[in-house]
Design goal:
With 40 residues, the chain is mainly α. It has one helix at 2-39. The longest helix has 38 residues, at 2-39. It is rod-shaped, with a radius of gyration of 17 Å. The mean pLDDT is 86.
Length: 40
């Protein structure tokens, strides 16, 4: 039982890191576009 819990926890952790990466990438793109607009 403990083994499966740790396995699922690892899965959630990996999933969370992937989601976090995507969110950070989206934020960076928005910031980049905003900076480009301001410079023009």
């Amino acid at each position: 039982m403990i083994f499966t819990i740790t396995e699922s926890f690892d899965g959630w952790y990996v999933l969370w890191r992937k989601i976090k990466k995507q969110l950070v990438a989206q934020l960076n793109v928005k910031r980049y576009k905003h900076i480009k607009k301001v410079k023009k």
